[in-house]
Amino acid sequence: MEVAGHVDDYNASFRDTVWLQSFPLNAQTVLHYFALSPFYDRSCNNERLKMQRLGLDQLKNLRGVEYELLPNAAKQLPQQLYIIRKQRRNGRTQVEPLAIYYVLDGTVYQAPNIHAMLTSRLKKCSYRINKAFHGLAAGPDVALEAESEIHFLQSTRYEE
């Protein structure tokens, strides 16, 4: 999702081993850790509150871009996965999601949006269909090779 001042980067990750060796990563520190990453927008409301030495509970009173740590829905202990939402606040109860980030075992990633996931899946499908048509056009030997690849892919695919 492209928004002014926001650029998606699904191939990047961030990890600060020195910070992780010095401080525990938990629900109270993960936003501080995330603020060190290149994903963090230094003009966000979280940063304004930090400079004014106010608590994050004051975010609801401000309008603009902010980061929110989402609750630990899995109730996992110790928590290994933290989910952070970048959002634009338009009112006390009105927010517009801009991006989702996750911190898994100390590494920060941006989660792909639905458009990026569907594009990736469609490209893979298109490639395989194109390869099958080329195999059929090339003759029966190549078609058999393509068929065996399809059987292999079906036997190893992820079951939901």
UniProtKB/TrEMBL annotation:
Signal peptide: none annotated. Keywords: Activator, Nucleus, Transcription, Transcription regulation. It is found in: Nucleus. The gene is MED6. The keyword Transcription regulation applies. GO terms for cellular component: mediator complex. One of its GO terms (molecular function) is transcription coregulator activity. InterPro entries: Mediator_Med6, Mediator_Med6_sf. GO terms for biological process: regulation of transcription by RNA polymerase II. The keyword Membrane does not apply. It comes from Plasmopara halstedii. Belongs to the Mediator complex subunit 6 family. Component of the Mediator complex. Component of the Mediator complex, a coactivator involved in the regulated transcription of nearly all RNA polymerase II-dependent genes. Mediator functions as a bridge to convey information from gene-specific regulatory proteins to the basal RNA polymerase II transcription machinery. Mediator is recruited to promoters by direct interactions with regulatory proteins and serves as a scaffold for the assembly of a functional preinitiation complex with RNA polymerase II and the general transcription factors. It comes from the Eukaryota. This is Mediator of RNA polymerase II transcription subunit 6. Pfam families: Med6.
